[in-house]
Amino acid sequence: MDGDIAKLPEIVEIAEEYDLITYVDDAHGSGVLGKGAGTVKHFGLSDRIDFQIGTLSKAIGVVGGYVAGSNQLIEWLKLRSRPFLFSTALPPASIAACIASVDILMKDEELIQQLWANGDFLKSELSRLGFNVGHSETPITPCIIGDEVTTQQFSQRLYEEGVYAKAIVFPTVPKGTGRIRNMPTAAHTREMLEQVVSIYEKVGKEMSLI
């Protein structure tokens, strides 16, 4: 929820020491870290991870998910995984869209660079206004408000002013650490983000948060 990155190298070291399987849920890393390939590639650990799973509905922008691993482990999953056994395949159109999206990510880093630039800008501007944006290491930009009710009211006021940013409160995060979770995309223009910052400033002052 805070845009931080798991200490994967340390996790892998422990897993190898105790002969454990390493399984990485990379829902928010796919298409963002490692030149789009995810957190595992970001740390150069592709040959030391057993499973990597991720969603195709966030950065990839379609629907579904994936599991990557060795041939032996994937075959084992096909035989033993109940969700796989009792599910149906994605429609061909969705698969084609996923392939096209991955092709774009692999051929050109411009969208990823724009995503990171937008995240950096939003964090910098919200911090300048006096909001607590935590210690995010990715484009995910939390705006930590604290009180659960105030956080939800703040989210509602942002929405009324034209910014859709969800409130994340207890029990999803520890009590008293409610936050607005902002996720800029590569499609956001600087003008859009400046408008968001302006609305944050207006509502923040209105609610005496800054």
From TrEMBL:
Q: Name one GO molecular function term.
A: ligase activity
Record keywords:
Ligase, Pyridoxal phosphate, Transferase
Named cofactor requirement(s) = pyridoxal 5'-phosphate
**Residue ranges that the Swiss-Prot or TrEMBL entry lists as coiled coil:** none
> What superkingdom heads the lineage?
Bacteria
Family (UniProt): Belongs to the class-II pyridoxal-phosphate-dependent aminotransferase family.
Summarize subunit and interaction data from the UniProt record for this chain. Answer: Homodimer.
Protein name, UniProt field:
2-amino-3-ketobutyrate coenzyme A ligase
